[in-house]
Write a structure and sequence with these properties.
Layout lengths: L2 E2 L21 E2 L4 E3 L4 E11 L6 E7 L2 E8 L7 E11 L4 E8 L10 E9 L1
Antiparallel strand pairs: 1-9, 2-3, 3-8, 4-7, 4-9, 5-6, 5-8
């Protein structure tokens, strides 16, 4: 299983690029990864904030609950990035995605990415 794309039902409708989606467990239309099996998964994301005076907060969500977050809030730079990653116990059919809680991101899948893969099946 592998895929890469920034995802959320709440933002970035212009991002329609999936680089890898072995098994087709990432739903491009819903922008959600659905786990095909129980296991330990690795997830990471990298987002770039546009120049403005807003702080961004991005959460990695598992079944509507935030697991990890990343923030970028420097007001005096033209661009700023935020990243985070986690090893996560995931049950079959769990849904994992990113949610922008506040702020605006720089558009385009080349700047902001979300990826994950199965590390150890259980």
């Amino acid at each position: 299983m592998g895929w890469c794309r920034i995802v959320s039902r709440f933002f970035l409708d212009n991002l329609k690029e999936v680089l890898v989606n072995i098994g087709n467990h990432f739903d491009l239309k819903a922008s959600v990864f659905t786990a095909p099996r129980r296991g330990i998964y690795s997830f990471s994301f990298h987002v770039v904030k546009v120049y403005n005076r807003q702080t961004i907060q991005v959460n990695l969500m598992q079944n509507e609950y935030p697991v990890i977050s990343a923030f970028a809030g420097d007001q005096d730079v033209t661009r700023e990035a935020a990243s985070n990653g986690v090893l996560l116990m995931v049950e079959r059919d769990d849904r994992v995605y990113l949610k922008l809680e506040r702020g605006n991101l720089m558009g385009g899948w080349k700047y902001s990415t979300f990826s994950g893969f199965l590390v150890f099946p259980l």
